[in-house]
Amino acid sequence: MDLNLFQFFTKDLPVEVKYINNARGKGLFATNCFNEGDEIFKENPLVCAQFLWNEFYKYEACEYCLRSLEDAETMARRLSGNPNVVLPHKEYCSTYAMENYVKCPRCQVTMYCSSTCLEKAVKEYHRSLCCGSNNCRPDHSLNRLRETWRNIHYPPETSSIMLIAKMIAMIEQADDPMDVLKLFSQFSRVTANNEAHVAHKLFGKQFVEQIEILRLELINTLPSSKITEWYTPGGFRSLLAMIGTNGQGIASSSFSQYARNVDAAKFEKQEEDYINSFLDQLYADMNEESGDFLDCEGSGLYLLQSCCNHDCSPNVEINFLDNNATLTVKAIRNISEGQELCISYIDSDIKNWKKRQAILMENYLFECTCNRCMVESQQPEPLSSSESEDSDDMDVGD
Ligand SMILES: [Zn+2]
Ligand SMILES: [Zn+2]
Ligand SMILES: [Zn+2]
């Protein structure tokens, strides 16, 4: 771990990265005090990618920043299956101008929310990943790779091979590949035993064969002499486990942004009642038509957020308020200067501490020793609990 490198990224922020101990590794600490509700900082990912099924089902997002590209009303119509939905108070829709949207001029397929995003994508990775005029051909190696991934990783999606493809392309295109490699090497790695566990979770029983197919297709798509270690069978498995355990889920939605704005606005009582019942009905229709799949979804690697340790009674939470992959870290308690900032990797409403521990072990491979778990483990067990110990129900929160 290179603390100097983190200092560079936190120099203008009210946080610092510190080494804690061998068991906990590094952590993120407040260098100011904060009140409940305060925004502490925002962070952009080093790299992010939309999930491939999410993209396949026409959730339109900027290829670089994952901004949701539909306007709120179009999105509400698609998700509810009702082409006649008219949103009240459109003044609370994003004012982001669709005239800014651009396609990659070469492949004419990848969409960006602005020429800035297009330029950054081309500079960082898209030159290596752009299929040029071949992009429509399903037998193009990149499209084959994406299809292979979709066929072995069904929704609910937790990761994407495009994250790895972009990482490799970033190294290929960097002025100094070592700079980029150094950034990616800051993310924590799991042991070889645990790699198999993560791979099993990602791909099921056939994971050994599946990983080998992916590895060969990736080498074929992006031949590179700069990352030879990543392309060995062991190195590739380790890389998959790294994005599996460090990848932060991302959700963006023009409609959610509108709903948040409306929710925060002040209306006359009668108008407020009307808006609330309108939105309740709309959410019910969306739920029936689209289930839980309401957002543009993907995952990304965030240098500072990845330093946040878990606590079952967290003092900060992560939100996506800007309708793109920029995350906001917000205080959900009062925080004093010097205090460690902890998020909950799971749904912290789960009351049974044994169940929380089982989910954390299954998904994040550690035993939680937070204060809440320590206190609750000392208390007598309730005789019956509505939360069963059913190990099939391993939901991961966001
Ligand atoms: Zn963008
Ligand atoms: Zn292109
Ligand atoms: Zn805990």
TrEMBL record:
Which GO MF term does the entry hold, naming one? histone H4K20 trimethyltransferase activity
Q: What is its main location?
A: cytoplasm
Q: Gene Ontology terms, cellular component aspect?
A: cytoplasm
Task: Report the catalytic activity.
Answer: L-lysyl(36)-[histone H3] + 3 S-adenosyl-L-methionine = N(6),N(6),N(6)-trimethyl-L-lysyl(36)-[histone H3] + 3 S-adenosyl-L-homocysteine + 3 H(+); L-lysyl(20)-[histone H4] + 3 S-adenosyl-L-methionine = N(6),N(6),N(6)-trimethyl-L-lysyl(20)-[histone H4] + 3 S-adenosyl-L-homocysteine + 3 H(+); L-lysyl-[protein] + 3 S-adenosyl-L-methionine = N(6),N(6),N(6)-trimethyl-L-lysyl-[protein] + 3 S-adenosyl-L-homocysteine + 3 H(+)
Q: Which GO terms of type biological process are on file?
A: methylation; negative regulation of gene expression, epigenetic
Protein keywords: Cytoplasm, Metal-binding, Methyltransferase, S-adenosyl-L-methionine, Transferase, Zinc, Zinc-finger
In terms of Pfam families, this protein maps to: SET, zf-MYND
Q: What is its EC number?
A: 2.1.1.359, 2.1.1.372
Q: What is the name of the protein in this document?
A: Protein-lysine N-trimethyltransferase SMYD5
